[in-house]
Amino acid sequence: MLVAKNLSKSYKEVKALTDVNLNIKKGELYGMLGPNGAGKTTTISILSSLLKPDDGKIFYEEKSLYQNLSECKKLIGVVPQEIALYEDLTASENLKFWGTMYGIKGQQLQNKSDELLEFLGLADRKNHKIKTYSGGMKRRINIAAALLHDPKIVFMDEPTVGIDPQSRNLIFEVIEELHSRGLTMIYTTHYMEEAERLCDRIGIIDEGRIIAEGSLDELKANSSIKEEIHLKYSNPNKNGLEQLTDRYNGQLLVNQDHLILSSSQANADLPELIQLCSQSELLLDKIDIRSLSLESIFLELTGKSLRD
Amino acid sequence: MFTIALKDIKQYFKDKTAVFLSLLLPIALITIFALMYGGIGKSGKSRPINLLFTDQDKTDLSQEVFSKLDAEEGLKLEPKSYEEAETLIKKGKRTAVLVLYKGFQDSVEAGKKIPMELFYDEAKEIEMGLLQQALWSNLFGVTMKKGIKGKVNTWIKDKNPDLSDSEIEDIQAQVAEQFEGFNNSEEQSEIEENSELPMTALVGEKKNGNLGLVQAIAGIAIMMLLFSVSASGASLLKEKEDGTFRRLLIAPVSPSGILYGKMLSTLFMAVLQLSVMFLYSWLVLGLDIFINLPALILMILCAAIACSSFGIFMASVCKSRKQVESLSTLIILVISAIGGSMMPLFFMPAIMKKLAVISVNYWAMEGFFDIFWRQLPLIDILPKMIILLGIATVLTTISVISFRRNLLKMV
């Protein structure tokens, strides 16, 4: 469906992308996981023709993007990170406008607009102005605006940013439904849970490079880490945490009230960890051994947290 | 392009209060300024005035009048035939022409009614006031001396038929010496009456409303329109700030198409605003907008195109709406001041009048003056329309280039 070869892009001295290669199959939901500033939005911008790469080639259904720009643009739908809607127009007016921009008119546009509003559970609010919508509702219309022209591939650039868990779940359900209908999607996120839940394949991107790629199982299989030790503590002792971080350099994630240690043998590493916590005067509330997550894989690959 | 324009127009009408205010504010200002300009002609300050001079007598005395007037600091004389002078005044390029008809010298010397006339443009009341002062002090000085001489001559001959010519000349010389002491008398009144300068308005005879009204409508409407189109043009930057601009660029539409779509919606709003202004002026202020309707429609369109291109120009050279707001306010106030929107150009010094030609306001206002005041035919107003379209072409070209360079880089 989409092939990108050796995409590179620089902004003056800053290298935003370096030799990014993608091969997205029809019907696939490909996740691009990386922290803020990793190059996810730049990649989407290039793939959707918004930006030109300094180097590299892009093909949609084996057609070069830049030689068939108008044709390829009709294959693409983009759900931008920001709410790209007109707040003073109603949902219905917004959808009609964006549909018209893609050449859909008349009854076909009306039907498609109504169908999407129904699908997204917003049919009863279609004549209300966008500015009266909640964040989650706006996000759903933001998705609908990208689907009006029945694109073959949809780019979703962090579509759940800034919304409540309930709305996020609603959006997940929408994405899963679209996926089940066979729509090809590229989904960028810095939430590992989203990538784990939704994506067939995941590309881990950092500093403009795709540093690992594969299904969740493949990524786990290729990692030297097998498990994670989660320790919940009740006293955030700064000196103690620093001592632990020094000891487990590049293996330990420190969150607000818990630690995650990536481990190849959790049972063997656990006694030493508990002893060090005791020496560092950290009061432990809960100890838990879990299977490997993308967060630990990212830590292993980059030495930093996804939320850094 | 049309989809974007229609969407913008729809958005414009969504905010009914804003629409109402965008029309109400110019209407309020036009009304206030129309009332203010009603008093034009009661004050002014001295500066050289161009006076056309048609000498059909071509005698020593008519030449003397020319030299005397030309030497006057406040006047700058230009000899022209009457036909040339009439054309220049009707086109608004000159204020007045002084015509000395054949028999001027003879009539003066014989103490008869002097054949001379001043033709002028009523639109330039202040200049005319100053001109009358200058003419009265100089023209009357020359003609009265000659008139007295003629009167004295006739009186001496009537009373003393035996005196020789040389004796009469001696007496005249004595009288001339005493001339300074000449005081109000029957003779003076008669001479003054004979020296009376008939004045005929060449422009503004078929008065359409009044001059102040045309000044207020044309000046304020254009200035307020510039503010409106700047805000409308800034919607392009709002699209960028809101993220819809990125989405537009991803859609199968060219960047120029987006820009032209914005320009089209801005143009629609500009035409609407100007049309409402003139309709109001017709209905409430009594301006006869049907005096030359085709020319008015074309002029509204040309002024709207030029102003819209200004709005798009501001949006394409600025990087944020804040920049547009502050920079366009500054530019609009400056070009409105020098272009005559805020006060009539004849109040201003010569340098300001020269600068006025760089302003959209000037050309649009001149066009409306041509229609309503000078009542020129369409063919004579066309040059102003062409200039406005020229300004629009230049601004649009710069906008397209700048848009490609700046806005597309910032996505």
The helix fraction of chain A, in percent, is 25-40%
* Percent of residues in β-strands of chain B: 5-15%
Find the count of extended strands of chain B (DSSP E, 2+ residues): 5
SSE run of chain A: EEEHEEHEHHHEHEHEEHEHEEHEH
Strand content of chain A: 25-35%
Helix content of chain B: 55-70%
Judging from the principal axes of the Cα atoms, what is the shape of chain A? globular
Mean pLDDT of chain A: 88
Radius of gyration of chain A: 22 Å
* Biggest sheet, spatial arrangement of strands of chain B: 2-1-3-4-5
Describe the structure.
The complex is a heterodimer of chains A (308) and B (411). Chain A is α/β, with parallel strands linked by helices and 308 residues long. The mean pLDDT of chain A is 88. Chain A has a six-stranded mixed sheet with strand order 6-7-8-3-9-10, with helices on both faces. In chain A, strands 2-1-4-5 form a four-stranded antiparallel sheet, with helices on one face. In chain A, helix 3 crosses helix 4 (106-119) and helix 3 packs parallel to helix 5. Chain A has eleven helices and 14 strands. With 411 residues, chain B is of the alpha/beta class. Chain B is 68% helix and 7% strand. Chain B contains 17 helices and five strands. Chain B has a five-stranded mixed sheet with strand order 2-1-3-4-5, with helices on both faces. Chain B is elongated. The two termini of chain B are 20 Å apart. Mean pLDDT of chain B is 80; it is low at 39-46. The chains are: A alpha/beta (308), B alpha/beta (411). Chains A and B meet through helix 2 and helix 3 of A and helix 1 and helix 11 of B.
